[in-house]
Amino acid sequence: MKNTLILGKKIKELRLKNDMSLRDLEKKSKVSYSFISSIENNRYQASRDKIINIANALEGSNVNELLLLAGFAPESDVLNENDDIVVSVEIMEIVGKRVKGERESLKYKDSKWTQEYVADLIGIARSTYTAYENGTKLPPVDTLNKIADIFECDTDYLSGRTNIRKKTEMNLSFYGGPQSWTEDELEEAESAVRRYREMKERAVREAEKNK
């Protein structure tokens, strides 16, 4: 399960609670309605700026929550464990399962990889680390980076944004694949596909008329 799935669902829920159409949100956020639709349907990953613009346009939203769901650091420079940030339970569960899975995989090969051992490597209390694995607390961004370094994987993987442990494992194609395209390129690609489909539909209708 990816965070983008939860992010898209969250943005759509907030938009509907605000009784806004995609066009309404486009006007307030200055983000194109087609791109918002793509985010809601988990097709594309938005930039940090676009997430902030969307959050600011939606009454009742928490910009830091949406940033975390999108895999970005919150607006404050450092996310402390006492920061009052609403985080989806699903995110904590995803991080917990993946962090625990990484540690247990190492422990299977070497018994030293206990919760206490990893907690010492990070520099936190064992109880805090246990809460991370149990999915009852979300690691701050800097702590998640440390955990990723220890397990030699990407934070995107630990937070559920991808099933690829490290980006170097990805086989890229077609100018790096959609993951590496800019938002303008993604919007252009989507527009091109839409125009092509409309052209095909017109061709089919014309063919049916001429039968």
From TrEMBL:
<dbReference type="GO" id="GO:0003677">
    <property type="term" value="F:DNA binding"/>
</dbReference>
<feature type="domain" description="HTH cro/C1-type">
    <location>
        <begin position="11"/>
        <end position="66"/>
    </location>
</feature>
<feature type="domain" description="HTH cro/C1-type">
    <location>
        <begin position="112"/>
        <end position="158"/>
    </location>
</feature>
<keyword id="KW-0238">DNA-binding</keyword>
<dbReference type="InterPro" id="IPR010982">
    <property type="entry name" value="Lambda_DNA-bd_dom_sf"/>
</dbReference>
<dbReference type="Pfam" id="PF01381">
    <property type="entry name" value="HTH_3"/>
</dbReference>
<protein>
    <recommendedName>
        <fullName>HTH cro/C1-type domain-containing protein</fullName>
    </recommendedName>
</protein>
<dbReference type="InterPro" id="IPR001387">
    <property type="entry name" value="Cro/C1-type_HTH"/>
</dbReference>
